[in-house]
Amino acid sequence: MEIFQHPMCLISSESVHNEEGEEIKIILKSEQEVFAQIEKIDWPIVVVAVVGLYRTGKSYLMNRLAQSSKGFALGDTIESTTKGIWAWCKIHPEKSNTVLLLLDTEGLGDVEKGDASYDNKIFTLAALLCNCLVYNMKGAFDNDAVSKLTFVTEMAKNIRYRGQSSENNQALKLILPDFVLCLRDFSLKMMKDGKRISDNDYLELSLADKKGKAEHFNKPRECIRKYFPKRMCFAFPVPGDGDVLENLETLKFSDLSDRFKDVTSRFVSHIYCVPPKELLTSKPVNGQMFVTLADHYVTAIKHGAIPDVDDAFSAVSKIENAKIQKLAVESFEKQMQEIVLPVSFDVLGQLYTKSQQTALDYLRKNVVNDKNGICENEAQMRMDNFLNKIKESNDDKIKEMCEMKLKEGYAKYLEENIANKVYETAGGYRKFQRDIDRLKQDFESDLRDYKDNEIMWTWHGFVKHLNEIEATIIQADEDLSQKEKEDEQKNNEEKMKTMLEQQKKVQMEALDKQKKDLQSHYDKLEKDRSQQLEIERKKFQTLMEEKLKFEKATAQKEIQRLKQEQEQRIKEMEKDRQRYEREVEMCRQQMRKRRRKSSCVLS
């Protein structure tokens, strides 16, 4: 597809002007052609978005991730080159059956934009769509840089999740991506109190609250810590001299400085380790799911609404679950259609149970957020309806098979004798009964794999059909007295009645057994579904625990840092106290010397 060949505009921007020609707002628009291509990707996708101030080299990083020297436009002027959000798909370099989706966003902070809220929209969209957010900037992560991250403080107000759209929404950290800070052309030494620190240590020190500072100083830092608990930092030195910077797009990677290449390689390696995007602990997001999310968010923003993550997840769930349900049911139907009918109900029941279990196992592993079992129940109902059609067809084929066997037996044992009236002689009735018994033995032997309740109804109908012939044979048999003939007729009627009652009893017992077997099967399915929900619950709990553990570790690290700073201040205060005491003692000594001198002069 074209989206794998070069970057394409995923979400475009369109300016709206007033009567004076001034730009008053910018409207975002989903590019359906590109959406249609991404929608075809059935593999899990890792979504990496880069955001940051314009003209800071965002596109270069994305091209490095795409393993290409060209692709996303780098630009060579002070004007912002990228407009809206551009996408480029690549087969993941290190993960099998996975796609790397790179999103290059329009540069933030362009003063020529008439829509003051536009940066917030771009940043919010990027954060919602990706599972790794790369924030790119030049220089040190100082107060001036942090103060430009105003869209981070506003982000919580621009996202609705679990019924909230406020900065107090602690649940946001569950859906927001990993945060990677890239500091370009970084020239400071990574030193603190005379000790070398890591890039990540530098980030955490920069994000720490400063006592005595105003809210606008600490707020962006607090928001980054709160919304992005998983953070990384890469400090890139200058890749070379001025000529290198001007020709960065055309130069080979080997032509750049060793330190720059080292940091770039570590950055690329880190991004390649990022797992595919997921809807919380559900299955990884594929192309169709991503497109549904993106279209939902863009539509909300376009109409001036706040993107609702729950609604977006529901839309994804509905579409994805319909697809998964269809595949599960089709898989079940295919397995059932491979059964060569007729078969006994026991065999059919076993094949049905196995086929349904396999189909539902697939559904449970791939369905999205089906806590109430709606998707599974609908799939099960469709499977049961299909089973009923198979059962009807199987019953018809069993009946046809029974009738064929009876027809063969009739031709073998009875047809000729009845036609030639062989039985309508003295002793003919006993011979007729013996042939009937032989026919029945062959019938039951040929159909020994089937239960009585499946074949005896046909036998019963066959015997009933012979009643008139049997009556004629009885009346013609001269070996029987009139009383014996009457008794035999009566006995046959009793036998038919008993046979019918016995058949009804067998049928009821079979139905009861089928009902119990089906109930046992449904109980197992419900147990399996409960176990799957428990697995999902534990996965979610593990996710929460990991995030809390990470936050706790970060907090403990911050506490340790503050403790060390406090200990350092105490040491410095102790030194100041000791110095003060020495100075006081020196003053006292000087005073005593002056007194002694004064005493000598007076004496």
Provide an overview of this structure.
This protein is α/β, with parallel strands linked by helices. The protein folds into two domains: 2-20 and 37-307, Rossmann fold (3-Layer(aba) Sandwich), CATH 3.40.50; 320-538, Up-down Bundle (Signaling Protein - Interferon-induced Guanylate-binding Protein 1, Chain A, domain 1). The protein is 59% helix and 10% strand. The protein has helices at 32-39, 58-65, 118-129, 143-147, 150-155, 199-207, 215-227, 242-246, 258-272, 287-302, 309-337, 345-366, 374-419, 428-446, 452-465, 467-476, 482-602, and strands spanning 8-17, 23-30, 45-52, 85-91, 99-105, 132-138, 178-184, 191-192, 195-196, 231-235. The strands form two sheets. Strands 2-1-4-5-3-6-7-10 form an eight-stranded mixed beta sheet, sandwiched between helices. Strands 8-9 form a two-stranded antiparallel ribbon. A hairpin with a 5-residue loop joins strand 1 and strand 2. Helix 11 runs antiparallel to helix 12 and helix 12 (345-366) packs parallel to helix 17 (482-602). The chain is elongated.
How many beta-strand segments? Answer: 10
**Helix-residue proportion:** 55-70%
Number of helices: 17
Please indicate the percent range of residues in DSSP E strands (runs of 2 or more).
5-15%
SSE string: EEHEHEEHEHHEEEHHEHHHHHHHHHH
The CATH superfamily of the largest domain is identified as P-loop containing nucleotide triphosphate hydrolases
Q: Which topology of the largest domain does CATH recognise?
A: Rossmann fold
Total domain units: 2
What CATH architecture label of the largest domain applies?
A: 3-Layer(aba) Sandwich
